[in-house]
Design brief:
By secondary structure, the chain is mainly alpha-helical. The chain contains 15 helices and three strands. It has a three-stranded antiparallel sheet with strand order 2-1-3. Helix 2 runs antiparallel to helix 7, helix 10 packs antiparallel against helix 11 and helix 13 runs antiparallel to helix 14. The radius of gyration is 24 Å and the shape is globular.
């Protein structure tokens, strides 16, 4: 890792440094914009419900009515919708998917426009629920400002992808979460050290909190990188012709990433937000006692939804039937398994087993903050685990891999020039 960092500062990698500096500049501009709030809108001091995950991704900008308060979360929602529409739901989207690069460009364009529309709808709903005003023009003005902020971030994210390092939209989400993290540690320090506990005990508990955080990050890195490699043999290739290197079909333990937790969080907290708007005490008590995931039955529902969406999203994004057909087209097969239906079943069983392990890990990670809020008196923002840290680690790993591959490619090109 340290050798890779040293290579970045070598003379031959000057353009990579420029890409990194450009990315850091954009992230700094994003952090600056989060502190620019809409003058006529006041901060939200009540619970955000299912919007809390989007507030986390935007670095707390949603709660303060920042111009970048919506972040790029509407684009993520639009991406999920367009991915679902490509699964034989609308033939046009399936045709675009099969057109290759041109089709992907059209899908990306549709996703951006859909993301801006969703941003306006979300901003207007936020204004209606939390601005406490009947002035329609004021709500429309607020919605347009926040939608413009999202549109600018989408443009800046594209610029980061083209001229910087890594995926721009993912890096903006990671930056928003990292901006929120210092509050977690300062609140934990205040609770343990300056709370009602003895100084020695408080220091020990704070140290244990830090160690637990580090261990969870290590565990997330391990699960994110872990994969099962299914051996693949090609009938038109010989093993000796390719330096005795065997081909593999890699399947990650957690192929669905963080999406199951996001979907489950939204579904379990939407009822709480709806009944809060109706102000019906009986409905509010029922939801708080049985549906919100801080309750025992709500936690069980939350866990079941994570498992369901874990399998659902994995089998949508990695269709075993399509993988089997692609192998057959390229004259590939799994040793000991017949092509066709047997290959589809083999891949499907492997995916099911790995998804079970990945979903259990997601459940543990998502349940840790809930357990802390249920069994401790710590502030609500002091948590261990959770969705945010999973996103940060995943984006950081992907960005590091991209930098490493760029350095490796340049090193290989330089060696070829020397031998000429």
């Amino acid at each position: 890792m340290f050798k890779g960092i040293a290579k970045i500062f070598s003379k031959q990698n000057k353009d990579i440094r420029k890409r990194i500096y450009f990315t850091l500049f954009c992230l700094g501009f994003f952090a600056l914009g989060l502190n620019v709030t809409i003058p006529w809108a006041s901060s939200i001091y009540e619970e955000l419900g299912f919007l809390e995950i989007f507030n986390l991704m935007s670095g707390g900008g949603l709660q303060s009515f920042s111009i970048f308060g919506m972040g790029v979360s509407p684009y993520i929602t639009a991406s999920i919708i367009t991915q679902l529409l490509q699964m034989d739901i609308i033939p046009y989207f399936k045709e675009l998917k099969e057109q290759g690069y041109v089709g992907r460009q059209k899908i990306n364009k549709i996703t951006r426009y859909l993301g801006i529309i969703i941003a306006f709808i979300q901003a207007y709903a936020l204004s209606v629920f939390y601005l406490n005003t009947n002035d329609v023009m004021l709500m429309l003005k607020t919605s347009l400002v926040m939608t413009a902020g999202t549109a600018f971030l989408l443009w800046m994210g594209d610029q980061m992808t083209q001229k910087g390092i890594g995926n721009g939209q993912s890096l903006l989400i990671m930056a928003g979460i990292l901006i929120s993290m210092p509050n977690v540690f300062t609140s934990a320090y205040s609770s343990f050290i300056h709370g009602s506990l003895e100084t020695g005990l408080g220091i020990s508990l704070f140290a244990l909190f830090i160690i637990s955080y580090v261990l969870i990050i290590v565990g997330i890195i391990w699960v994110t990188l872990a994969e099962r490699r299914i051996p693949i043999q090609y009938s038109n290739r010989t093993t000796s012709a390719y330096g005795a290197q065997q081909s593999f079909l890699p399947i990650k333990i957690n192929s669905a990433g963080v999406m199951p937790v996001i979907f489950a969080s939204v579904l379990t907290t939407i009822p709480a937000t709806i009944v809060a708007l109706t102000k019906n005490e009986a409905a509010i008590n029922f939801v708080n006692n049985y549906i919100v995931y801080s309750s025992p039955t709500g936690l069980i529902l939350y866990i079941l939804l994570i498992f369901f969406f874990g399998y659902f999203y994995t089998f949508i994004s990695m269709n075993p039937d399509e993988m089997s057909k692609n192998l057959n087209k390229s004259s590939g097969y799994i040793p000991g398994v017949r092509p066709g239906e047997d290959t589809t079943n083999y891949i499907s069983k492997s995916l099911s087993k790995l998804t079970l392990v990945g979903s259990v890990f997601l459940v543990i990670l998502a349940a840790l903050p809930v357990a802390m809020s249920m069994f401790t008196d710590l502030p609500s923002n002091v948590t261990i685990g959770g969705t945010g840290i999973l996103i940060v680690v995943g984006v950081a790993i992907e960005t590091y891999k991209q930098i490493e591959s760029s350095l490796t490619a340049r090193s290989y090109s330089a060696k070829k020039k020397r031998f000429r």
